[in-house]
């Protein structure tokens, strides 16, 4: 909560480093947050579009017109086994209270609980201009057992001329 600083940063890069869930065969979700340090999840319809491919089978798909109430999915069927940790990068564009909606773009690679190699790229947004002050990442079941999430602010361009 409360890491967004729209006066200094235009967007944020997020690195997920070897996330492993405590519960096998679970999904990684996220919420946009509002209201600062003691804020709340931004509720409403989270839309998602992109592609999904399994490198060890013929399973792949273009994902369109997908939505969920009050959350979005980053990755499906995360496993607890050897070599099943998730690594990913994301770009977060927070809404400022007027204009554009909050958007999270993410590229994900991991071995799922089947195990099968998964490569995906998605864009998620909530159609709301409500100022977003943070993000919440969590598993659909259980907790994140290990790994790291790093957030870097992308500084706004300052014209010194």
Describe this structure in words.
- With 161 residues, this protein is mainly β.
- Helices cover 0% and strands 60% of the residues.
- The chain contains no helices and 11 strands.
- The chain has strands at residues 9-21, 26-34, 40-41, 45-54, 60-69, 72-78, 86-93, 102-111, 117-126, 134-139, 144-155.
- The strands form 2 sheets. Strands 5-4-9-8-7-1-11 form a 7-stranded antiparallel β-sheet, with no helix packed on it.
Ranges where pLDDT stays below 50 over 5 or more residues in a row are none
SSE ordering: EEEEEEEEEEE
Largest sheet: 7 strands, antiparallel
> Which structural class best describes the helix and strand composition?
mainly beta
Oligomer: single chain
Strand order of the largest sheet: 5-4-9-8-7-1-11
- Strands, total number: 11
Helix content bin:
under 10%
Cα Rg: 16 Å
- What is the averaged pLDDT score? 92
Share of β-strand residues: over 45%
Distance between the termini: 35 Å
Shape: globular
Number of helices: 0
Please supply descriptive tags for the structure shown above:
161 residues; four-stranded antiparallel beta sheet; mainly beta; seven-stranded antiparallel beta sheet
Set down the secondary structure blueprint.
Blueprint lengths: L8 E13 L4 E9 L5 E2 L3 E10 L5 E10 L2 E7 L7 E8 L8 E10 L5 E10 L7 E6 L4 E12 L6
Antiparallel strand pairs: 1-7, 1-11, 2-3, 2-6, 2-10, 4-5, 4-9, 7-8, 8-9
Summarize this entry quickly.
With 161 residues, the protein is mainly β.
């Amino acid at each position: 909560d409360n890491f967004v600083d729209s006066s200094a940063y235009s967007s944020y890069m997020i690195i997920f480093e070897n996330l492993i869930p405590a519960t096998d065969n679970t999904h990684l979700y996220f919420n946009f947050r509002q209201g600062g340090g003691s804020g709340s999840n931004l509720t409403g319809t989270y839309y998602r579009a992109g592609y999904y491919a399994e490198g060890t089978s013929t399973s792949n798909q273009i994902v369109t017109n997908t939505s969920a109430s009050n959350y979005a999915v980053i990755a499906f069927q995360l496993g607890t086994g050897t070599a099943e940790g998730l690594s990913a990068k994301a770009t977060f564009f927070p809404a400022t209270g007027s204009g554009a909606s909050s958007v999270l773009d993410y590229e994900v690679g991991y071995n799922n609980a089947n195990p099968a190699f998964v490569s995906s790229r998605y864009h998620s947004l909530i159609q709301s201009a409500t100022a977003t002050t943070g993000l919440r990442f969590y598993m659909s079941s259980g907790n994140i057992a290990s790994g790291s999430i790093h957030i870097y602010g992308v500084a706004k361009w300052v014209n010194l001329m």
